[in-house]
Amino acid sequence: AQSVTQPDIHITVSEGASLELRCNYSYGATPYLFWYVQSPGQGLQLLLKYFSGDTLVQGIKGFEAEFKRSQSSFNLRKPSVHWSDAAEYFCAVGPSGGYQKVTFGTGTKLQVIP
Amino acid sequence: DVKVTQSSRYLVKRTGEKVFLECVQDMDHENMFWYRQDPGLGLRLIYFSYDVKMKEKGDIPEGYSVSREKKERFSLILESASTNQTSMYLCASSPRTGTGDTQYFGPGTRLTVL
User: Fold this and answer.
1) Contact call for A106 and B40, based on CB within 8 A
2) Among candidates A80, A71, A94, which has minimal Cα distance to A23?
3) Quick check: A101 and B48 CB within 8 A?
């Protein structure tokens, strides 16, 4: 069965600092991997996804993520955080075919301080 | 832009009531999903549907049922609401192309069962 672990429940960073959110997955084959963001009071929005090819994936809002098969990781990064990035971030894994039953992690809440 | 709408942002019901949560998408997507979101637990899949009148149980279907009579509409039904069903409910839709499709989320319905 597929699963996702986000080890950090809550992270606080200063505005302008770099950010890395961790995600580890478990899946038997090459998975599809996603990062979604949920701003307060909103639904989830896709930041980026990986399903093949280049292991460094660029997304919206200046985010990127790197797929590392050997470490079963898909960490999200941003070089310089803005106050508007304060939100909850979810990593997700899905199968490489068939119906799109995606498994989400428990989320990491990001706080940005001035 | 894909739009997923949910019938209510906030809902308060009493124990034992039958509750209907409605979700409508306007992008002709084949797949639709119902999740519940609880602090520390992330998103958990209740049911999904990959076609009209088709449904599949997710990870936590107990106490819920669904209906999909039209492609654009997916309803979640709580037959007899209980206090442990107090939660945020998120609906999502996605196309079915088999290539790691993005799920598009509605804004959520925060349900309180008293």
Assistant:
1) yes
2) A71
3) yes
Longest dimension (CA), chain B: 42
Which of B44, B50, B92 lies at the smallest CB-CB distance from A99? B50
Buried b (16+ CB within 10 A) or exposed e, A79-100: eebeeebbbbbbbbbbbeeebb
Confidence at B25, pLDDT banded by 50, 70, 90: very high
Shortest Cα distance from B98 to chain A (angstroms)?
Answer: 5
Q: Is B26 left (phi over 0), alpha (psi -120 to 50) or beta?
A: alpha
Residue A4: half-sphere exposure toward Cβ, Cα within 13 Å: 29
CA distance B55 to B1: 26
Q: So what's the pLDDT on residue A54?
A: 84
* Binary contact (B107, A34; C-beta < 8 A): no
pLDDT digits (tens, 9 = 90+) for B42-61: 999 999 998 898 899 999 99
